[in-house]
Design goal:
Length: 232
């Protein structure tokens, strides 16, 4: 960061907030060493690459059908869904790492934006850094599932696919009792695991002086699906 803070600020937009949350990561002992802001900036670029090259991994579902309601069928088209997600504050388009988001924004994201299979594990790990966050998510997801939330049907339609909130409730319950559930093949996948993403970032060059030549030479595989393949 110190060798060129303008690059870091331009990519992260909220570097101070991200630095505070990285300190929480270290205090919680989630990873042996938290990445610095330059490394997280490179991780943000990786997220951009994912959005362009693998858009099918975001906001889609392979396991469940679209809800039969007219509204859910309309919102199944992601470009049409986007403004409603923004209005709901269920997505933060400028926060590609999740580290700049507040507790409330993470809660809204989990409740209103679809995550396929176990992709919500990433956000559950971040939410666990906030005291009481998992408990609040469990209660809010329960109220949606049981129809106690007056906006339950809207949130169900907004996530589009059947069974989402039931799966989220089960995941939140498991996270409260035993920690966030991650299969062995998911634990190091930076698409699914926040700690995997942190480890992926921490393996990258720590300064822009090192990072820029590595990027230009193709030594950093920003399209890598697993963190073991970070460096060519």
């Amino acid at each position: 960061m110190r060798d060129d803070p303008l690059w870091t600020g331009a990519l992260l937009l909220f570097p101070r907030r991200i630095a505070e949350n990285l300190a929480r990561v270290e205090q919680a002992g989630l990873v042996p060493r938290a990445p610095n802001l330059v490394q997280v900036s490179l991780g943000v670029i990786r997220m951009w690459v994912r959005l362009v090259k693998r858009p099918e991994t975001i906001g889609t579902c392979t396991a469940h059908h679209v809800r039969p309601t007219f509204r859910a069928r309309l919102l199944a088209y992601r470009p049409l869904r986007f403004p409603f997600l923004l209005r709901e504050r269920a997505i933060a388009p400028l926060d590609f790492s999740g580290l700049a988001s507040s507790r409330e924004r993470i809660l809204r994201h989990l409740l209103g934006a679809h995550h396929d299979v176990n992709q919500f594990a990433y956000d559950l790990e971040i939410l666990a850094l906030h005291p009481g966050g998992l408990e609040e998510l469990h209660e809010r997801a329960r109220r949606v599932v049981e129809g106690e939330d007056p906006r339950a049907e809207w949130l169900r339609d907004l996530v589009v696919f059947e069974g989402y909130h039931e799966n989220l409730l089960a995941a939140a319950e498991h996270a409260r009792a035993h920690g966030v559930r991650l299969a062995p093949h998911e634990a190091d996948d930076p698409d699914i695991s926040f700690t995997g993403y942190m480890r992926w970032c921490a393996r990258l060059p720590a300064t822009w002086r090192e990072a820029i030549p590595a990027l230009l030479c193709g030594d950093i595989d920003l399209g890598a699906y697993r963190y073991e393949a970070v460096m060519a």
